[in-house]
Amino acid sequence: MFHPDLLRGGRGISRSRSEHFFIKGRRVFPTGITRVTVDHEPSPLYISRGEGAYLIDVDGNRLLDLNNNFTTLIHGHGFLPVADAVADLLHRGTCFSNPTEHEITLAELLIERIPAIEHIRFVNSGTEAVMFAIKAARAFTSRPGIARIEGAYHGAYDWAETGQAVSPAIWNDPLRSSAVPAYRGMPASVGEEVTVIRFNDVADLERRIASAAPALACILIDPMPSRAGLIAPEPSFVAAVGAIAKQYGILIVADEVLNLRQSYLGASARYDLQPDLIAAGKIIGGGFPVGAIGGRKEVMRVFASDSGKPLLPQGGTFSANPVSMVAGRVAMEAMTEAAFGSLESLGDRIRAGLRNEIERHGAAFSVTGAASLFRIHPKGKQPGDFREAYLAPEEAELMDRLSRHFLNCGILLPNGAAACLSTAMTTADGDAITSTFADFLSTLEKNPTEAGI
């Protein structure tokens, strides 16, 4: 049922060295970690190295990695072409105040592939990419407001994250706005400039956009919002977004920081969304920090300084640094149409396998996702938007047990986020995912309170 070579010391994993480093980390970091997304219950797993599809932690546990640094590593760990290219570059300099040819070659590759990108600018992260895409929309339209999808994750820019942390306490009260702040102390004025829309709800989209349209610069949309359920967009919803944006002169900003990995052409092209701007990141950096804003030449002119100060100044000490540019180019060159097709085939096999096990066991689970992405939900009916995907306390506890079960079987399964595949994975790896899930369902049937313990 499992990959016996993944485990050391039988079922379960050792944590002694990781616990040692966590104690040290708590002396220098709040909570002992530097990213809120790191699982630290009971302690984080500290990684020693990565090898292809696997991670090896400081205790020697070997784990099939379905996180890949939150979908970044499309080739897995230690991808040799990237490692060789970067090693050669390091001896010649890692960053300069002047441009290099490397930024041009990566830009040319992305412009050639992604239909919506005619011009592009590089930054250092997905958060920056979304932030500058929003700013570009504002500069182009001379409007301050944005509309965004309820529950979707778009990084750490105030306007992008407002409306992310919604809960039943908010949506069950008709007098409260869904544009809730993401952290204490966020200016109340931010929420006044953000319109929150339910995903795949055309009526809600049309009603809310119509009332806010005069102030809206853009509709910010992830074609398949990961944190909000990894749910596919309905064609009618995509068409409505395009029609209403055109009607009111609002730009469409597609956040493809995560979902660019859905196809050779990206996610917008896959779902027939026609954005004015695209925010990209993750896979285009080859494992190094990167972000990009691309789109129509007319809109991207807000960054231009040919005639003096641009409408939107954009700098960044490490923007377009040669290491990220070279690593990104090499990684993306290896992602041919055939490579994307192979990943999608593996994803289809895994999603079908998981669904077959759910049906065989009569379990109250469902699976969403596409291409190289999947997510398991503790719900018998597949959710259609964030509210339907939202986990009740008992469902959240069940998903914790599922993640622990996978970890005990040597597989790192993200909890509450997209699981992703890499080109380093094999069919046997995919089958191990399915068989591990089947074992969890069997254990759950026999011992409803002990699965994953």
Automatic annotation (TrEMBL):
Q: Does the keyword Transferase apply?
A: yes
Question: Where does this protein come from, organism-wise?
Answer: Rhizobium aouanii
In terms of domain of life, where is this protein from?
Bacteria
Q: Which UniProt keywords apply?
A: Aminotransferase, Pyridoxal phosphate, Transferase
Q: What phylogenetic lineage does the species belong to?
A: Bacteria, Pseudomonadati, Pseudomonadota, Alphaproteobacteria, Hyphomicrobiales
Q: Which GO terms describe its molecular function?
A: transaminase activity
Family annotation (SUPFAM superfamilies): PLP-dependent transferases
Q: Name one Pfam family in it.
A: Aminotran_3
Q: Which cofactor does it need?
A: pyridoxal 5'-phosphate
Q: Which family does it belong to?
A: Belongs to the class-III pyridoxal-phosphate-dependent aminotransferase family.
Tell me what this protein is called. Aspartate aminotransferase family protein
